[in-house]
Design a protein that fits this description.
Helix content: over 70%
CATH architecture of the largest domain: Up-down Bundle
Largest sheet: none
CATH topology of the largest domain: Growth Hormone, Chain: A
Number of helices: 21
Distance between the termini: 77 Å
């Protein structure tokens, strides 16, 4: 790979990671503003919620299709180059949109194409950064580093919605796209400035080399052949199915709007509270010394967040209950994700982590593109009519979630909370999952062969000197004995 030569030592370690983080935070906030502005523009043109939904579908669909192939490229190539892939692909998509918007020929389908670009880029982002942490910082700093990275997904969630509405009215979509382009240029510059060490080669990594497709699915095989790790991944898969339905824009938003008479301020307050809680949890993780048993934290996090968050969201009918519920969910979310990242970074050889992280993301989020569709179908077609006046479920659940508009979505969210709780408990009841921290050994970094030879040489010299001193003492003792004779 090409390299830039600097007349000074480039930042590395936690300092270097923070510089990368700062650039990504700038581009993340700008992208969050764009992510809110684009649906506004689509809705103003089409007046269709389905058109907005397709934007999310194309993004997540392309992400899932690309994520497995991204893993092998991450392991085969320079980590910094793969970290740059997200920025370059996103920048390319935004540049095309800005040109089309400036020329006055931008259409909705152009946004879908751009969403594909960004989805493919996102497939490189998370695994690249998770794998790079292993080479940039020491093992005892994994939790802090992952906590720092988790803030990249939470802080933009606070500022994006607040700034998007104002900026859309003042500078329009063209201005927002231009600012986002500039933010990605800054992010790329920060990343090029930092030293990101290459992943060390391991025996297991060398043995994994094969044909491209076989290597692409190697991460899946790695997980499937380890029952405890597979169990953790299935917790994420089924847990995200329930939380994806309950917390999607097709379930949570209609429930709050229907229960409050379309009060968007209440909805915005709930969103902001959740984002703020996630940020505070991420800051806590950056100062945390470490998590000794991450698997149990993952299981406990899924159980408690489902039991005290999603169920409370479904039962609640006033703002204070929703705020408590969303804060609980938002606090546990980064803790669970950071624990999973730290677990894989500790257990998986560095030159396999790109593929394993990509496979982990693929399994965990396989149902995410479909959860909004499921939420809309079950909510609109089944639960809302069943909880309406004279509905089939009013007598059974009316005392718990109320009746009238929004109660059907509330019941759907409540049932998803029960399902998520059972998922977490099942993980604790299975020993191979509960005890995987001990059952799956940590990866031990082997010193380079030159260092081993040097150590052996030094040890040989020391042993030789020790032997000579012993012989010298023995000879001196013998001579003394002879003189005494």
């Amino acid at each position: 790979m090409w390299k830039l030569n600097f007349p000074f030592r480039r930042p590395n370690g936690m300092r270097g990671l923070f510089i990368i983080w700062l650039g990504q935070m700038i581009s993340g906030i700008a992208s969050s503003i764009t992510a809110v502005a684009l649906p506004i523009w689509i809705f103003s043109i089409t007046d269709s919620g389905a058109a907005v939904g397709f934007l999310e579908f194309f993004y997540f669909g392309s992400y899932l299709l690309a994520t497995l192939f991204a893993g092998i490229l991450i392991d085969r190539n320079d980590r910094k180059l793969m970290m740059l892939a997200y920025d370059f692909l996103s920048l390319s998509g935004l540049a095309i949109l800005l040109v089309l918007q400036t020329a006055g020929i931008l259409q909705v389908w152009h946004l879908y194409v751009s969403a594909v670009f960004q989805g493919v880029g996102a497939a490189f982002q998370s695994p690249s950064y998770a794998a790079a942490i292993t080479t940039m910082v020491s093992k005892k700093q994994y939790i802090r580093a992952n906590g720092l990275i988790s803030l990249l997904y939470d802080i933009p969630g606070i500022f994006g919605p607040l700034l998007a509405g104002i900026m859309y009215m003042v500078i329009g979509l063209s201005g927002i796209l231009a600012i986002n382009l500039l933010a990605f240029v800054i992010s790329i510059g920060f990343l090029l400035f930092v030293d990101v060490p290459a992943a060390p080669h391991t025996v297991e990594g060398e043995l994994s080399h094969s044909k491209f497709f076989n290597e692409a699915i190697y991460g899946l095989k790695y997980i499937l052949y380890r029952p405890g790790l597979l169990g953790l991944q299935l917790i994420f898969l089924t847990g995200n199915l329930f939380s994806g339905i309950a917390l999607s824009v097709a379930a949570l938003y209609p429930m709050i709007l229907l229960r409050t008479g379309n009060n968007t301020e209440t909805l915005g307050t709930v969103q902001a509270a959740g984002a703020l809680a996630s940020v505070l949890a991420g800051i806590l993780l950056t100062t945390w010394g470490g998590i000794k048993r991450p698997a149990r934290i993952i299981i406990l996090g899924w159980t408690l967040s489902s039991l005290f968050s999603m169920t409370l969201l479904g039962i609640g009918q006033v703002l204070i209950i929703w705020l408590i519920a969303i804060v609980i969910d938002s606090v546990f979310d980064p803790i669970v994700n950071v624990s999973m990242d730290a677990f894989l970074q500790t257990k998986v050889p560095p030159d396999l982590q790109g593929r394993v992280f990509s496979a982990s993301d693929f399994i965990a989020q396989a149902m995410i593109p479909f959860t909004p569709l499921l939420a809309g179908y079950f909510g609109d077609r089944i639960f809302e009519p069943a909880m309406g006046t004279g509905g089939a479920l009013v007598n059974t659940f009316g005392w718990l979630v109320g009746t009238g508009p929004g109660s059907g979505f509330g019941l759907l969210i409540l049932l998803c909370g029960v399902g998520g709780t059972l998922v977490g408990l099942s993980g604790y009841l299975i020993p191979s999952i509960r005890n995987i921290d001990q059952l799956m050994p940590d990866f031990r970094r082997v010193p380079p062969m030159a260092m081993i030879k040097r150590f052996q040489s030094v040890r040989t010299r020391k042993n030789t000197r020790k032997t000579r001193r012993t012989i010298h003492r023995v000879v001196r003792g013998r001579n003394s004995f002879r003189r005494n004779e």
